[in-house]
Amino acid sequence: MDEDETLVEIEGGLVGLVGLKSLFAEYADRDLSDARAIKSELLSHVEKGNHVPPGKREVYADTIFRELGRYLERREAGGRSEATRMTWRGIARESIQWFPMVDEDHCDGCKKCITFCSFGVFTFSRKEGTIKVTNRYACVVGCSLCSSVCPPGAISFPPLSYLDDLTRSRGGGG
Fold this sequence. Notes:
By secondary structure, the protein is an alpha+beta fold.
């Protein structure tokens, strides 16, 4: 993975976007009250170095704006939120994009993942009748066992090669 590539969840899948970290740093001291204008600016910057599929501009803009908010929250908390002060192999947990993704089209709302996972990664959305990942950085890096207890197979993770690549790029061996 590129040093300035960030994996973000867009419509249940992971998408690597280049340039978010440096872009977000530019917005750290800006007035963000006009969300619509900021989303448009962010999207324009992202489109310069990334492919945004036709018809998905609004989804991407919303996602990028959400990720900017998370970036700013971590920055205000000294770089790490209270829940993410952990590391994995010396790497800050919040910089590791390892967490489950739930395919809402396949999720039947059985809640087996909630029962199985003792780390509080999932919650049940009564409105939609599906499972949501609401505490993604509480997920144990490298664990994907919740996907094996999901009867419809609605839970997925990045490939394990992502962790191998991350470890190698940080000089951590394997």
